[in-house]
């Protein structure tokens, strides 16, 4: 070949790889442990991966929340922190980024996503009302419930089936929405709470067509529509890849259009926005904004910092811009897909299609011999840690919690163990090591005996519960 650019070489071998659109400038050593050390560490943590010390963890796939690697530009931005109590210039940069990329009018900064959920729930819910959502998220639903609402899941049935290949498993079922309105009346529905990529369903996206239909439904009934835009740039990639008419639209254009059909939104900046802490809430309606701005000073901080340092707002403003670059989103989701495809090739049961931020191991099919109240997902997370020091997270019956009225466990259809990939942190070699560890645990699956819960906190029990082997 005369003219061997990487691209013509790719064509020559019939394959084209994606690669990270960044290079490494600073490294952080990882801790390597022996199996004996891990046995001790896990017992001390009550078999709950949330209670492990990170120093005892090798590859940390607990969460993609706040675990992102910031860019050199973001670190430079940290040095430009304007720590004025009021009117910090970093706040105005953040406002510009939110208005420019998400399109909402009025910004309320918060310390992280749940701060935004708290404020919105208090301002937009009257006790006794209902909130419809595309599957629950832990902190979102809890704040809605604490404000006096009952949460109703209106996601399509396909989302509750880990093997169903539907391309937009985050979609809402309009018939379920209609049934709720028939039952309780539109005036009793506080708002529709839509999440762009549904975490608990396996990082599954919502289509633009579904959103438009939900918007029309809300307009017909005079119901507000608010968006959890925490992983909206990842959702936009799926729209670009799978939905007709969007192949030539940029991630930024798709996010902007999507948000344009909603009345407001909030994010945990710790996910797509590539920072370690931060969040915000933004709405288009002045009256609601006034109420939120009144509340933010009670619970978070002044309305121009909302619990964040100026430097944190600067890093998030820059992170928002970086999170909307097509190359970035493609390689971020590409890495998740790489891990998922290895596991699929090796016959390990995972949620399909592969989602945006994580691989969800299907613990019901992984451990068919374990009943759900022996905590199969929690067991799988424990076994994976023992095998190789890889930390994952339970997303099943422990996360689902108990019904406040009956006191029974909720028994979710999905019993999953999540391998969540931090953004720009691990290499493809780490994904190989992870896939091989999961395979080893899968090969030994018949020996797993399950766990019992020996300590249960009252709220969000998955964070702090203790277990013992059965
Ligand atoms: C993480 C998360 C939240 C809560 O945000 P925090 O920053 O953890 O408080 C809300 N919604 C979704 C979809 C999330 O992933």
Summarize the structure.
The chain has 470 residues and is α/β, with parallel strands linked by helices. It is built from 17 helices and twelve strands. Strand 2 (130-133), helix 6 (138-146) and strand 3 (150-153) form a beta-alpha-beta unit.
Account of the 3D structure:
This protein has 470 residues and is α/β, with parallel strands linked by helices. The chain folds into two domains: 6-60 and 326-469, Aspartate Aminotransferase, domain 1 (Alpha-Beta Complex); 72-323, Type I PLP-dependent aspartate aminotransferase-like (Major domain) (Aspartate Aminotransferase, domain 2, 3-Layer(aba) Sandwich), CATH 3.40.640. The chain has helices spanning 6-13, 35-44, 72-78, 89-101, 113-124, 138-146, 174-184, 208-221, 232-242, 251-260, 286-299, 310-323, 326-345, 363-366, 376-388, 397-400, 428-443; strands spanning 106-110, 130-133, 150-153, 189-195, 225-228, 264-268, 279-283, 358-362, 393-395, 416-420, 451-455, 466-469. Strands 1-7-6-5-4-2-3 form a seven-stranded mixed β-sheet, sandwiched between helices. The chain has a three-stranded antiparallel β-sheet with strand order 8-10-9. A two-stranded antiparallel sheet has the order 11-12. The relative contact order is 0.16. The model is unreliable at 1-9 (pLDDT under 50). The chain binds pyridoxal-5'-phosphate.
Task: Please report the total strand number as a whole number.
Answer: 12
| CATH level-two architecture of the largest domain | 3-Layer(aba) Sandwich
What fold name goes in the CATH topology slot of the largest domain?
Answer: Aspartate Aminotransferase, domain 2
| Adjacency order of strands in the biggest sheet | 1-7-6-5-4-2-3
Ligand names: pyridoxal-5'-phosphate
CATH superfamily of the largest domain: Type I PLP-dependent aspartate aminotransferase-like (Major domain)
**Largest sheet entry:** 7 strands, mixed
Q: Work out the radius of gyration.
A: 22 Å
Instruction: Kindly report the average pLDDT value.
Output: 95
Quote the distance from N terminus to C terminus.
63 Å
Number of distinct helices: 17
The backbone outline, from C-alpha atoms, is globular
